[in-house]
Amino acid sequence: MTLNQRKCKLSRLGLSLFALLILVATLSMEPATGSNVTSGPGDVKTGYDSKTYETRSISVLKRKGAPADLMRVLQSPPRGLPPVPVPKDNPMTQKKVLLGRKLFFDRRLSLNETMSCAMCHVPEQGFTNNEMATAVGIEGRTVRRNAPTIYNVAYFSHIFHDGRETRLEYQVWQPMLNLNEMANPGFGYVVGKIRSFSDYKGLFESAFEGRGPGIETIGMAIASYERTIVSGNSAFDRWYFDNDESALSASAQRGFGLFTGKAGCMACHVIHKDYALFTDDAFHNTGLGWRFSVGDGQAEVPVQIAPGVKIMVPKKVIDSVGKPPPSDLGRYEVTQDPADRWRYKTPTLRNVALTAPYMHNGVFGTLKDVVSFYNKGGIPNPGLDPSIRPLGLTDDEMADIVAFLQSLTGDNVETLVRDAFAAPIGDRR
Questions:
Q1: Residues 127 and 226 in one domain
Q2: Coil, strand or helix: which one is 284?
Q3: Strand 344-345 versus strand 283-284 pairing type
Q4: Do both 273 and 375 map to the same domain?
Q5: 264 strand-pairing partners
Q6: Can the peptide bond before residue 357 be classed as cis, meaning omega within 30 degrees of 0?
Q7: For a FRET experiment, which of 41, 132, 264, 409 has its CA 20 to 30 Å from that of 32?
Q8: Predicted pLDDT of residue 325
Q9: Could you give the number of structural domains in the chain?
């Protein structure tokens, strides 16, 4: 199939060319840390342009699930994390968590019964999607933003890149009703579907003291499962909070010094005395949103047509064959405050080595790319956050910061992923 044929096919599926350009860029993305079947995309293309390339594709048949005690984090959160906040009107129970896990992996909860929550938040890909810069919904429909990880989402007071939701119980409904995601036409449609499935018979009533499937109970169940996806006790935590000098490499220790000093990363990615969420849960303009909305005036843009192969294409050609990028004004869409244009939420850095691609639009495939972007001072624009400035880091210093970021992977990742593999998959019979 020629490139033009692929473009036409993607266009018929409703994908904008913007999504195509971003998607193919991820083919050069670094693989997630780890080499077992519980880590990384199933079809790694890194190094595909090399004559010595060998596939590292992961067979689904090799996945072996192992149910975990997900409630354990409530009694004993991992090192480096505070107690998991649980709302009084939705106390956690084992039955709720298991029901929420079942719903999370149920493809039948989308309009055409092909898309589950877990297809954008893929457990072995950092509970995001390493293979898509911006998410893709049913029938290949374009979703304009990157799928954020749900690792440690229990701790956040703002959810989504623009912070438009404040509770997981509410958040779960947005993708189910969004036309470009799971595309259900209404609340009642989803509730009615679940009530019709024999494998859910009695599960809601048992978990919610006689209450059946409904707007509230569906949201409460999925939120309960998501609150158990908590990951900490990383090498950094053991070094910083437990004073284990052997836990962190010399490079990562130098990176921490730069992170908290010269690079100023900690201004937004906060570390507290007794715990670290690595986010201020606030919103900042780095220039990326501005550039993709306003443009940078380039007559030609690079298009990656294969791993390691790029060509320059006149922008007018791209404009003639593809949809314009969907509008995205960030936090402004929630507050309507002009000062919030192109501001996006500070993401957590925990497990960041597992959650590529990065930024709200998934434009960067590697941590090195991200650090380099900030080293250059972001992209100048009228609303650029004052904390973003050229950093003057050397290549070695940037490598040390990357080493530090790689030390933030929790020690229970495999446990959580294998538990996900053990979950029942709701599918059309």
A1: yes
A2: strand
A3: antiparallel
A4: yes
A5: none
A6: yes
A7: 264
A8: 73
A9: 2
Residue 143 and residue 252 in one domain = no
**Cβ partners under 8 Å of residue 59, min gap 6:** 37
Longest dimension (CA), the chain: 63
* Packed helices 17-25 and 3-12: angle between N→C axes, nearest 10 degrees: 120
Same domain, 96 and 196: yes
Check if the beta carbon of residue 148 is closer than 8 Å to that of residue 158. Answer: no
What does the buried/exposed string (b/e) look like for 213-246 if buried means 16 or more CB atoms within 10 Å of the residue's CB? bbeebbbbbbbbbbbbbbbbbbbbbbbbbeeeee
CA 217 to each of CA 172, 195, 214: distance values in angstroms, whole numbers, following the listed order: 11, 12, 5
Rounded to an integer, what distance in angstroms lies between the CA atom of residue 418 and that of residue 429? 25
Q: What is the DSSP letter of 79?
A: T
- Is the domain of 182 the same as that of 128? yes
Distance CA 148, CA 168 (A): 13
**Lookup result for tokens 């050609």:** 317
Per-residue pLDDT of 197-252, as tens digits, reads 999 999 999 999 999 999 999 999 999 999 999 999 999 999 999 999 999 999 99
Could you tell me the residue range of the domain that residue 219 belongs to?
A: 71-231+412-421
For the residues of 229-277, what is the DSSP string, one character each?
Answer: ------HHHHHHTS--GGGS-HHHHHHHHHHHTTT-GGGTS---SS---
**Is 292 a domain residue?**
no
For the chain, counts of helices (H) and of strands (E): 17, 4
Q: Which two tokens stand for residue 263?
A: 């690079």
Query: Is the CA virtual torsion 193, 196, 199, 203 positive or negative?
Result: positive
CATH no. for residue 247?
1.10.760.10
- The token pair at 138 is 């049913």
pLDDT at 5 (0 to 100): 45
Residue 223 shares a structural domain with residue 343: no
Please indicate, yes or no, whether residues 110 and 249 belong to a single structural domain of this protein: no
Q: How far apart are CA 398 and CA 39, in angstroms?
A: 25
Per-residue pLDDT reduced to its tens digit, 157-204: 999 999 999 999 999 999 999 999 999 999 999 999 999 999 999 999
